[in-house]
Every structure is written in structure tokens, then in C-alpha cells.
Design brief:
alpha+beta; three-stranded antiparallel β-sheet
Length: 705
Amino acid sequence: MNKKSMLKKTAALLLALGLTIGATGCDFLVTDSQEDLKQIVATVDISSEMSDDETMKAYADGMELLIDKGGLSTEIPKRDLIAYFLNAGYMYVQSYGYTYEDTFNMLMDGLVENKLLTQYAVAYYLSKGVSAQDCINYVNEKTAAATGAEKTLLQNNPEVLTMEYFLTEGNKADKRAEYDEAVYNMMKSINDSLDSSERNYVTAQPADDHSHDETRTTPTNVNTKITDYIPTKDNGDINYGIYTGRNTLASCGVYEAIDGSTATSRKKAYNAFLSNLQGYGLIKEGEDTSDITKLDYYYMELASTLGQALVTKFGEDLKEDAIAALTEEYVQKQYDKIYEAQEYSYKNGTAAFETAIDGVSDDSFVLYGKEGYGFVYNILLPFSASQEQAYSAAKNKGLTQDEIYDVRKGLLTDLQAKDLRSAWFCDDTEADDHYAYEKDGKYYFFNNNLNKADEYESLKHYAGNYAYNGKAELKDGEWEFEPTMVDIDAFMTTFETYVGQVSGCEVKPYNDTNYTNGKYNSYADSNYKDANGVYDYSNFVYYAGKVELGDVKAAEFFYEESKSYKALSAVNELMFAYSTDTGCLNSYMGYAVSPYKTDFVPEFEYAAQMAVRGGVGTYVVAPSDYGWHIIYCSFVYDGGDVYGGYNDAEKETEGTFSNLFYESLKSTTASTYVSEAQTKVLNGYKDAATYHKDAYQDLLDLDEE
């Protein structure tokens, strides 16, 4: 972990997380009175320094008004420092050898920087038209309208409403999403903490009570929620709550309790949580603890969370300023600059180009191509364990190479592959790693990603329509499987049928009669060599064909509406289902293939180069000592401009090259801009902070104890 990174990413304090840790190893921080935690360790007031800032000095009065009457906080209490230590600093002492003094000084700087940025974000939105007086009126009106405990909580924590007002840019209805996201994430973090604690009290089921037949790689983004997802009710309210056991699970919306959870086990976890808060003086005498959202602690956390959300929003809005500078002319110039540099580097050699394509990704582009290079997917149908033993024994008998190939040919004829996705079934069908779901009597996978697009990330290049090939049945809490075994001919029938269905294209073998399925002449007469007695690896090609994709555009590799994308998605899914070559799973384009000598085994090298020569959509079947390889060409480099240039009209068309190039440039430019802007704020307003060292000197002196 980078020290500077931690300081820049000072998040909402979320004492729920830290206090769970603190209960196990930081007893020396427990204080005897709430008064000690109330001590102010630093004050930050940027309004006193705004007169020196030409862009912000006009809003100094508004800031003073908010600090005086609007609930905008200038103080950092000691409790925040201790909470920050429990969340992050403790690890620096225990794992990285930092002294307590260095750690607490570092944390103090982080808290001050966060407070500075929060206040500056408020000033920034004042400059964008949010009214300080209207905010004060909003805070007063909402507080006056509240009753009972809520009124007291708002009076004690007015910054909650202040942050809410600025986060929503003046309580605008169309700006509520960022506020709701912050509240949802805070509640989710508290639930996660309670979940962790509750596992200590759940006895109905052991922690690892479910099992898999074996492990199996899953596609990237499986069960990954979209970062800004917020579960909502029909009326727009957040459909989520904190479950404490003192309320009902049904009242907590889409929150899902851990396996084995009961109201009793949850209450125990919540009581332990409350005990921690009480130990740190964060439960006030006489507070009603039946509803966590009515605790002063909760409002304290909410103010911090909303403040951090405002800083994040400020950063995102700064990015928009940077993005505005990304004109078509500017982006085109960046493209031309990269292209010219690559052309100079790659044109007269291969080493630099081969290194570049090995590192290609959605933010690292090869714009200038060399002809003959490409990428392939590899579906490896492996020999069984007994076949491997038989083949190894044959190779140790002193046979000629031709005789060894004959043995391998016989084993390949008998090779039977199976769908390997039984590992994606789990005995505990409620577990996070149970990926199967039933539809029309068949089992498919990854229902969340494929059928809940508003909540979960998509799976790139994964069609998701190929059912488990075999029988799967849950009996007495355990899965039983009868996989359908397939030889190479049956697999190729499956391959061509499924890829054709998904892509909507004709899929057929080459017209050359030599490639008729299962009857290539070298496998009839064992003729492995050419006329000169040299092994001719074209004689090892068992089968070849092509998906008739029509006009294939390199710029549409990730464009989901293109035929090439759909075909590749089907091939990729079959690769996840059958292949034991894990090196190709979750790769960007597959294996990079050179037209020259490679490190691949010779049969694979020939077949892969053949596939690339055939163009995108070409597939070639060839053997090796590992089994059958079904090699599919996913991408081909033509000489010169790979993508046909940058097209500004496609920058918003997701998945196109121009979209990916623009987004990458936007991300880099915006991040740099925000980082520089925040650094400027921190340097320009450093005199706005006053450290009260005497209030936390006892923490700095812990090394001496």
C-alpha cells in the first residue's frame, strides 16, 4: 500500500469496520470518558485564506456564513483520529513497522487534507450557484420540522443536512442519486461489519459447508455489481436497510443475511457492535439503541460519509472540466502522435511490435500493425489421465517419432472430452460461488451478470446461452453429474452449431476436400513428412473451417452488435466450458501469434498461423501431445493503420475502438487534472489548518510505553 495513496483516499470513517478490529487488539485506545474523545485535534477554516485565491475570494463570505450558521464543521475531534487509526493506521504499526508517532502524524495529515478538500468542495459549489443562505434555510427548516429523537440528532449533527444540500446541489431532485449512493454504501459497510461479527455466533452451519467437484476459472466480472448501483423501491426510496436483529429481515429490502443467520445471532453481533461503541465512548447515556439509524453515532458517520461523497463529486465535476478540453482536434492529434511513434518503432523490425501486442489492452493500443500477426483463442480438449500414462509409456519404449505419432493418433481417436463447468455448481445453492441456474429444464450460468444488466457488470465476450452438457441433479443436498462425453467430431458439430446460432452466420468447413471432418489423408496413411523427409505440419491439421462474418472491422472487436463479437463470445463460452488451457481464459484477445518462429509446439504453431492467415473467424483443429486444439482466429493485424484512424462520431458507441481510445484518453487526462487541482488546493490552503498537538500527544507517546 502506498502511503500517499492512503492519504489521498481518506474515506468516510466507517467506525463500524474499525471498531470490529479495535475490539481484538487495540484496548490501549479505550478511554475512560467521552470528554477525551471530544477533544479537538485540529481545526480547518479555509474562509480565512480565501482572500488570496482570485477564483474563490468572492465566496469567502458564504463560507463564513455556513461555518457560523450552516453547520459546516471546522473541527476534527479525537474520536475521528482514533477511528482512522483503527481502520488503517493499526496496519501500518503491525505490518509495516511504523512507529505510533509517525503513524498518527500521517493520519492527522490525512484527516486535515480531507477536511480541506471537503470545505473547498463546498466553496466550489458556491461558485457554481449553490446559495449559502438557502442551505442555512434548508438546514433550519428540516430541523424544525423534525420531531423527537430525529430533531435532537439533527441539532447535534447539522452538517448532515449541509452536506446533503451541497451534494444534491441545492436539493435538486435530479441530483439525489449521489446522495442515495453514499447512504447505501455506508449502510452496506455497516451490514458487512455486522455480517463478519455474526459469523462468530452462527452455529447452524459451518463456514465452509458447501463444496465443488473441482475449481474452475470464471469469466471476469462474475457477480460484480455496477459501482453506482442503488437498489430502489418503486417510489425511488433506497430499498435497503441495516439488519440488527432488533428489526425484521424483511424490513431491510434487498439485504441478504448470511447463511445460518437468525434474529438471535444477529442481535448478538449487534450487541457486540454496540459494546464496542460504548467502550470508545460513542454511545451517549440514555440513547435508544433499538434502531441504529437513530444513534448519534450513525449521524456522525453520515456527516463524514456525505462529506467524502462531496469531495468525490467535486473530483468528478473537475473531470468534466478536463474532458471539455478533449476536442475532436485534440484527440486526433493524440492519436496521430501515438501512431507516428509506433510506425517509426515497428516498421523496420519485429521485436518491438511483438512486445507491444503482448501488452495490448483496452487502454494500451497498437495502432500501427505488421501484416501476418494476429490473435487466437485455444480450446484444448485434453487426454485423460490414463491416456497420458499410455502415451508416456509409449514414448519411453524407444519408438521412432512416426511410431509415436501413430500411438498419439490412436489416443486422439478415442479422446473423450466433457463439460468442465460442474465446478460452477455448489452444494449450497445460496452461496455466492454457486453460479448455476435452471431454465427450461437445463442449467445455465451467471444469472446475475447476464439477466440483471442494471445491477451487475457484463461478461465480456461471453454469450451465456450454452447449457451444461450433461445431467445435473441435486440429491440430498449434493450435486450428482453425468456429463455427456464428446469426441472431436461431436465437439466440432457442437462448435459449429452454437457459434452459428449466436452469431447468425454460416459456419462451415473449408471447401477443400482434404478437410472433410475426420478423414484428412495423413490420418489415413500416417504420412507425416514431405517429399524431403521433413515433418510437414500441414499434415497434422485435422479439420478447418470459417465463420462467414462478412466485412470484419478491427475497430469493432468489443462492439457487442458486431457479428465478430457475437461469434467470439460463443467461442469464448465453449472455451470456458471445455478447455483445460487456462492461459487463454480471461485474456484480452487470446494468444498473440507471429508469422515467424514461435515458442509454441510445432503442430500448434502451424495451425495458429494458418488460422491467422485465414482471417478472423477461421478455426483450425490440430493435435499436440496435450490433446486436441480447436484454434479460433479472433483478431488480425494488417499492415499500417490497424483501426482506420480515430472516428469522433463513434466515441460514444460503446465497444468501438474510437470509444475505447477516447475513454482511455479521458480517464488519463481527467485523473491527472484532478490530482493536480487537489494538490494545488492542499498547497494553497495549508495555512488554513491548525494542529492541536496537545490533544493527541498521548497517542504520539505510545511508543514509550
